[in-house]
Amino acid sequence: MKPFFTAWLALVFFAVQDILIWQRIFETHEMWEFVNQYHLGWFVSLAGYIALGVLLFQTWKDRLIYAVCLFALALNGIEDVLYYWLDARALPAFLPWLNQNPLILFRPVTDTGLVANCAIWLIVMVLGLVFVEKRRRSL
Hints:
By secondary structure, the chain is mainly α. It is 73% helix and 0% strand. It has one domain (2-138). It is built from five helices and no strands. Helix 1 (2-27) packs antiparallel against helix 2, helix 1 (2-27) packs across helix 4 (78-86) and helix 2 (35-56) packs antiparallel against helix 3.
């Protein structure tokens, strides 16, 4: 379970970084012409968080669990929910920038659909981790 909780901690810092860069810089200064560079930087930063975390774990299973969990948590809408929650703002009623995301199950993406999507993903991830832990202990 340590890789899962480490991925959550990394995700919290990643979301705070997203708030500081996107909202405090891009939105404040209306830098919409740089949106593609921002998204590339977002992915590069996520890759860095994943790479550094992978180096911290000793076993390939923990490394894989960490990498998959952080990747899934960042891309399945949970990072978006954290983004608003950590900034003490309500989720927008509609989140059209997530409509093309293949990890979002409900379209068009609404606040309720996003929360439901996140709940489903969390349940799947926790059940998967419980299965892996039980299997690991039985070996």
